[in-house]
Amino acid sequence: MPEIRVLIVDDDPLVRTALAHFVARDPEIDVIGQAEDGREAIGIVERDRPDVVMMDVQMPEMNGIEATTVIAQRWPDIRVLAVTTLDGSDTVLPMLSAGAAGYLLKDSTAESIVAGVREVHAGGSSLSPRVASMLIKHVRDTEHSGADREALEALTDRETEVLDRLAAGMSNAEIARALIVSEGTVKAHLGRIMSKWHVRDRVQILVTAARAGLVDFR
After folding, report:
1. Angle of the 172-179 helix axis to the 183-197 helix axis, nearest 10
2. Per DSSP, which regions of the chain are E strands?
3. pLDDT in tens, 107-133
């Protein structure tokens, strides 16, 4: 029986159909509805309470940033995953600030999109590689605080390896394959990094590491 109930929000019906096809192939994901703009999405969320909302950014009536703000405030347990073609700081940063748990580009592979849904549903974050790099660059360009490195609790060699791959935009599953460990081990490492640095999620790990100059822009 499906465990992850997903709502897909995009103003292009062909995109909605394609995304639904990608994610519904996973036996544990159920696409419970589709919406063509943020306003319609909020109505469906209020009625059906999905677990994950796959949200486009640029839409008529109400855009994805506005809708994500409402959803994050009214239903904080519902996770929003941005899925869009827009990868500029003028959309990525407001979307993440609005409460999106992840940001994937529409040219991501079907596997990456499914992994992203799973990641945010599990309480993590999912970022496309270009988005992760852009976020790191933005933080480092605007907050030159490499001295913060001394204030952070040091990471182990393996935690550093996990951090480097997180900065490359890898999902937990991809990191696990790269390091030849279990996905549970990767989650444990990320959990320890969050605990050491007193942050709440993968995005905040990246921001903290970028501020301290611990990850490189690629």
Report:
1. 110
2. 4-9, 29-35, 52-55, 79-84, 102-105, 126-127
3. 888 888 998 999 889 887 778 877 877
CATH of domain 135-211: 3.40.50.2300
Domain with CATH 3.40.50.2300 in the chain: 4-127, 135-211
At a CB cut-off of 8 Å and minimum separation 6, what does 105 contact?
A: 83, 84, 85, 87, 128, 130, 131
| Phi, psi angle pair for 189, to nearest 5° | -60, -45
| 120 vs 79: CA distance, rounded Å | 6
Given a contact cutoff of 8 angstroms between Cβ atoms, the answer to whether 24 and 31 are in contact is: yes
Homologous superfamily in CATH for domain 4-127:
Response regulator (3.40.50.2300)
The structure's pTM equals 0.72
- Across the range 86-104, mean pLDDT stands at 84
pLDDT in tens, 84-93: 988 777 788 8
Give Cβ neighbours of residue 66 (< 8 Å, ≥ 6 apart).
38, 98
Which residues, in sequence order, are CB contacts of 63 under 8 Å at separation 6+? Answer: 37, 38, 57
**Environment class of 106 (CB within 10 Å of its CB; exposed 0-12, middle 13-18, buried 19+):** middle
Q: Tokens for 50, please give them.
A: 């999905």
Q: What is the DSSP letter of 128?
A: -
Tallying the residues shown for the chain, one arrives at 218
